Every structure is written in structure tokens, then in C-alpha cells.
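Sequence only, no structure available. Ideas?
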Amino acid sequence: MNDITPSEDKKIPQPQPVSESAPIDPHAPAQYAAQNLSQDPSPDIEPTPVNNASFWSRNSGLISMAELIIGAVVLAAIINSFIFQSYQVFGMSMADTLHEGDRLIISKVSKSLSKVTGDYVPSRGDIIVFNSPASPDIQLIKRVIALPGERVVVKSGKITVYNEESPNGFNPDEEYKDLLPPAKTGDIETVVGDGEIFVAGDNRVTGASLDSRNELGNIPIDSIVGELVLRVFPLDQASFF
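Reply:
I predicted one. C-alpha cells follow.
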């Protein structure tokens, strides 16, 4: 018999699937190539992001710092011009109240407000800083002795002020006389005019202070910069005035 009977364990070969990681055969059918490409959605090269931020957002830190510095400078200028200003004492014309090297804070508040209200007269006994009438670029510090309309007499070193409240006169140094050295100034008599004040250094020794008792004369109120409110240095002598 020539009939051939297939064996039970004999199998028909099946086509093998294409591996996803296998290289694409250029001679392979198109459907296999398409299938391989569709299964790799993530390319190796990533797109470079584009920075669309504005100049202001990219430099916000620098801009904030510049604004802070400018704001601080403007604030300091406003404070120095209208509120407070720091000074250092040179010379001994205000001894023994103030000494050379003392660091002071001068208040400009009252003088600044007077530009709105129109009225400003310092109080007797105030220690003030003012521009010298003889040399406006020089600033001096003295004590207010007499106010507008008052008569001042200096005799044998003693100052006497006459006004409507005290027609017989009074000594303006009585309150702080313990701070003053013995006076040796000459004799003068003057009337303080409107818009003026009479000032003197606390050092009343002849030649120790340029003030209203000598060639400086009465001081225009408009020349006043401000009043002493605080001594900050030396630290052991820090005090309010």
C-alpha cells in the first residue's frame, strides 16, 4: 500500500510574531512596519521648551531690589529735609551743655509745619540749629534767649530780658545756670524785632561763642533749621532736650 497516513505528533509550522524591539526589515510587509512604528509613541529627542516669560518677570528680583534701594533713598531724603537730621558738634561754644564730637538729632517738624500754618517761633530755652546770617553756608547751634518784641540787656556778663509779662526783667539763664561757665562778655542792649530771636552759646566766656551778644546780632527766624531733641553720642551722655 502506498497510502501515507499522517503521524499524530507531526505539527504544521506557524509564522513567528515580530518582536517590538526587533529592527524593522525593509523587505517586510508594510503592515508590520506600520505596526512597529505605532507602538513606539515616545521619540528619543524631546522638544526644547521656549521661554515666553517677559523681561519684567525674568528680572523681578533685580527690579524689586532696585525699587527697595530707590525707596530707601527717597525716604531718607524726605526725613532729612522735613523731619529729622543728624549733626555733629564742632567747637566749644555750647559747653558745658554740648561738647565737640557730640552726635545730635535735630527736629525739623515744627519748622516744616510752619510752611503750611505760616507761624513759627521757637520757645525760649530751645537749642536750635540755624544758618549763619553772615555766612549762610555755615550752620551754628545756640540757645534761644529772647523772642520778638523783647528787650535784652547784657551787663557784666548777666543777661536780663524785658517784656510785657516781666516789665522789671528776668534772667533767662536761671533754669540752666548750673550749666553755664562764668560770663565775661561786654555790655549791650537791644530790642528783638519781628521775625527775629536773640541767641547765645552756653559758653559765656568772652570770645567763646559767636552769637547775638556780639557781631552776629539778632537771628532771622527764617534761618532756623530745627531744634535739638536728642543727643545720641557719647552713649553715656545720651539724653533728650
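Confidence is low (pLDDT under 50) at residues 1-15, 18-22, 30-38.
Hope that gets you unstuck.
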